[in-house]
Amino acid sequence: MSPVARKVNKTVPMSITSLIDILTILLLFIMINVSADPDMVPEGVELEEALFVEHVADNSRIISLNVSYTGRDTGFITYQMENSSEVITIASLSELNNTTQQIIGAKSVALDATLHEILGDNLGAIPVVVKIKAHKNTAFKYINTLKSMLVSIWNDDKSLVRSKVGSKDFKLYFATEFAENESQDYYRLLSSYGLTPDVAGGK
Amino acid sequence: MRMKPAVGKKSKINSPSEGRNSRGSSGHQEVDLVPIMNLFVTIIPMLLSMVVMVTIAYISLDLTNPNSSGGGVSSSESKKEKKEQKITKLELSINVENDQEFFQFNKNGKPDPAYVAIKTDNLSRLSEVLNEYRKIMMEDKYGDSVFTEDDDRSLPIIIIPKDYVKFGTFVKTMDLCKKMKFTDIMLGEI
User: Fold this and answer.
1) Which of B52, B57, B187 is facing A176, going by the closest CB pair?
2) How would you label A93-103 residue by residue, b for 16+ Cβ within 10 Å and e otherwise?
3) Adjacent-strand bridge partners of A134
4) Dihedral of the CA atoms A92, A98, A100, A106 (nearest 10)?
5) Is residue A166 part of a domain?
6) In whole angstroms, what is the distance from residue A117 CA to residue A165 CA?
7) Closest partner residue to B166 among A49, A53, A137, by Cβ?
8) Shortest CA gap B83–chain A (Å)
9) Which of chain A's residues have a Cβ under 8 Å away from the Cβ of B94?
10) Which of A5, A52, B22, B185: disulfide with B178, CB 3.0–4.6 Å?
11) pLDDT digits (tens, 9 = 90+) for B36-89
12) Largest Cα–Cα distance of chain B, in whole Å?
């Protein structure tokens, strides 16, 4: 007959070492991803999805302009300073709505001064890329006005705006939300275009 | 309030099991991980809320004046080919009427009656039409209309969006045009 086992109220401490390991790795991963990606979507700006990607030249000077749209012709064109949370408002959409050429000219001068400050002494030495991150519901006329303002600054020979930027060449890039290859969004978008993966490849 | 056993002092043992499990005062003391855990539990949700789960891509636009480029064909060439039915200039305008957006094609400066009022939510129809134009223009420009996946040949198109066209519609149109090898996109004005 076996001896009666004495009932012992033994509490085993839970090992949380592995949990802390996971949390530490997760923390580091998130911190690296948050800090190393300056190309972020501004709050309130919803980008349109796209399949096509164009790479921005590595050696270019990049200026990111944000166009927020809050409906009924309201919103702002802003620039966020690099490595800073400071946001410079270039124009409100209501200001650009039904305004005379003079007012748009004045806004162009202000934009010119801002860009001159941002670009500093690098003008002409390296190509300039203007990235426009605009809300997908923005009326196209505001994008067109912004484009006209930029062109008037760059090609100052043809415009009334006396450019400080004084560069002759820049490229315009529109930000989109990229549907990664083979993802669910990719196939959904491909299907809405009426394309198959083979056709999308150009066959 | 329970006090933690102080290092160097003899701790009070309440039960035999506690006595067996407890290490001597000279043994290693476990680090109190509760504050670190509290910190992690706060920081991780905060950082997760900051992370934007969107991959940004870019679609570029050539700002060359479409009138001067003439759709990528020189004026002398276009004069020679005037009698033929070649497409020297293809325009895709995006119009809005009664909050309804639709596409309209202009071929060599004139509206193409074959493809009128394609609704912007019917992008598959737009891709069919672009495919038709692509075949004709590739045949004209390069002598064959067969594509390969890594084909780097390009075709020109001028997109003309009206004032109240949504920017998203314009981006989707550009995206589809680029997918259909109309990569030489210019922005036209009304």
Assistant:
1) B57
2) beebeeeeeee
3) A67
4) 10
5) yes
6) 9
7) A137
8) 30
9) 140
10) A52
11) 888 888 888 888 777 766 777 888 887 765 554 444 444 455 455 444 567 888
12) 107
Residue A162's domain is classified under what CATH number?
Answer: 3.30.420
Residue B32 burial (CB count, 10 A): 9
Residue A149 belongs to a domain: yes
Q: What count of other Cβ atoms lies within 10 Å of the Cβ of residue A20?
A: 14
Q: pLDDT digit string (tens) for A115-168?
A: 888 777 666 667 788 889 999 999 998 898 888 888 888 766 655 566 666 666
d(CA A193, CA A172): 25
Q: How many CB pairs under 8 A join A and B?
A: 160
Q: Which of A30, A136, A193 is nearest residue B166 as measured by Cβ atoms?
A: A136
Give the number of domains in chain A: 1
Q: Is residue A153 part of a domain?
A: yes
Tokens (6 digits) for A134:
């605009």
Tell me the whole-structure pTM to 2 decimals: 0.72
B13: which 2 tokens?
């043992």
Query: Helix %, strand %, coil % for chain A, to 5?
Result: 40, 20, 40
Question: Distances from the Cα of B67 to the Cαs of A159, A170, B78, B107, B176, in angstroms?
Answer: 18, 19, 14, 14, 23
* Segments forming the whole domain that contains residue A165: 56-177
Provide the 10 A C-beta neighbour count for residue B68.
6
N-to-C CA span, chain B: 79
Structure tokens at B113: 């009656």
Q: How far apart are the C-alpha atoms of A39 and A116, rounded to whole Å?
A: 21
Q: Is residue A25 in some structural domain?
A: no
C-alpha–C-alpha distance, residues A126 and A122, integer Å: 7
